[in-house]
Amino acid sequence: MSDFDSINNFLVDIWSRINKIEERSLTAGIGENISLTEIHIIEKIGAQQPSRMSSIAKAVGVTLATLTVACDKLESKGLIVRTRDATDKRVVNVSLTPRGQTIYTYHKEFHERMIAAALSDLSPDETALLATSLQKLQSFFEQQG
Fold it and tell me: Could you give the CA distance from residue 16 to residue 34 in angstroms, rounded to a whole number?
């Protein structure tokens, strides 16, 4: 098998595995059925609170209408709250509730454990090479849209 085929197979396989493991871990760890889309929205909100709905939509790569529907679900689950901006009433800000914050923290810790495990057997030079290679891959994906 060529290096190209090996890398292609790895990327396709790992993406699917990470998503399944992450979803399973979240459901088991927090005892709540949260979709990957919902957790990624929570992740973006938790990184900077309060956040504008328009900023979250852009960061997640969805339309504002799509984010609004997702936030309706998150709000009904008691994970987020939406408020109007004090200085510009047209702007809607979103923040995590205490339950939402717990899920955000759990998800962040999951990623920390995943990366620690992935890097545990690598030398500092190997870690640096992997980071550089993944940054190049990320740049490619960002250019694609």
Answer: 17
Do you find a cis peptide bond into 124, omega within 30 degrees of 0? no
| DSSP bridge pairs for 84 | 92
d(CA 140, CA 145): 9
To the question of pTM greater than 0.90 for the whole model, the response is: no
pLDDT tens-digit readout, 88-118: 888 899 999 999 999 999 989 988 998 999 8
The confidence score (pLDDT) of residue 24 equals 80
Name the average pLDDT for the chain.
89
Please name the residues in contact with 74: beta carbons below 8 A apart, sequence gap of 6 or more.
38, 41, 42, 80, 100
Exposure letters 96-134 (e unless 16+ CB within 10 A, then b) = beeebbebbebbeebeeeeeeeeeeeeeeeeeeeeeeee
Residue written as token pair 């990184």: 47
